[in-house]
Amino acid sequence: MAAVADPIRLEVIDRLQREGTRCVCDLQPAPPIPGNQFSYHLKVLRDCGLVTAARRGRWVDYTLAEDALDRLHAALPQRIGARQGARV
Amino acid sequence: MAAVADPIRLEVIDRLQREGTRCVCDLQPAPPIPGNQFSYHLKVLRDCGLVTAARRGRWVDYTLAEDALDRLHAALPQRIGARQGARV
DNA sequence: TGGGTGATTCAAATTCGTTTGAATCAGTTG
DNA sequence: CAACTGATTCAAACGAATTTGAATCACCCA
């Protein structure tokens, strides 16, 4: 849960889910933060397996891990009465 | 999200949901931590409205806020394909 | 009333995550 | 190759959250 306690990182997760794979420069929050600082946050997400990175030429594309949102929701106590959606 | 980034506090939320209203001493994690430290964590949860406290004689009972789990799950990006449970 | 327990508060110390600045890597282009 | 851009790494500085120890509060009971 600590990985998404930071708003910058939570926003990255959210953007990746809505927009799919994106390169680092596209994921910059508004207003932008220093590149090395952003890199640090991406590394935190990488290190806990919530996102994966792949180099594409000069750029690096980030992708939300398949099970990222499942893992996050599962880490929270479940609401009683909440029904699970069908797996894709 | 930062409120549940700490494992001690996440466990309190979980216990309160499973076991319902409990006094502070019942909520102590295993192994127990110093009372004042635990008090601090409970205050963090109180301050963001995830739990409420009520004195009962010498003891203080903690209760999970009605909307606590909804708020936590809502703070995360939603899984695609996940259906919402009916509200109680 | 005095002693004891459950719990909270406070300030100081400590720890941990984040930020910063400089350096480096990888790949592209002139 | 040299220069440039996108991105990452590293160590040091910083700041916020947590831990600690002591004091305090609230209540109950002998």
Order of helices and strands of chain A: HEHHEEH
* Through-space gap between termini of chain A: 24 Å
Strand order, main sheet of chain A: write it out.
1-3-2
Query: What's the assembly state of these chains?
Result: homodimer
Write the layout of secondary structure elements.
The structure is a homodimer of 88-residue chains.
Chain A (H helix, E strand, L loop, with lengths): L6 H13 L2 E2 H4 L7 H13 L3 E6 L2 E6 L3 H8 L13
Antiparallel strand pairs in A: 1-3, 2-3
Chain A binds a DNA duplex (30 and 30 nucleotides) through helix 3.
Annotation keywords:
homodimer; 88 residues; alpha+beta; Arc Repressor Mutant, subunit A; 3-stranded antiparallel β-sheet; 4 helices; 3 strands; 43% helix; DNA-binding
Notes on the protein architecture:
The structure is a homodimer of 88-residue chains. Chain A has a 3-stranded antiparallel β-sheet with strand order 1-3-2. The first copy, chain A, has helices at 7-19, 24-27, 35-47, 68-75, and strands spanning 22-23, 51-56, 59-64. Chain A is 43% helix and 16% strand. The mean pLDDT of chain A is 95. Chain A has a single domain, classed as Arc Repressor Mutant, subunit A, CATH 1.10.10. With 88 residues, chain A is of the alpha+beta class. Chain A is built from 4 helices and 3 strands. The radius of gyration of chain A is 14 Å and the shape is globular. In chain A, a hairpin with a 2-residue loop joins strand 2 (51-56) and strand 3 (59-64). Chains A and B meet through helix 1 and helix 4 of A and helix 1 and helix 4 of B. The first copy, chain A, binds a DNA duplex (30 and 30 nucleotides) through helix 3.
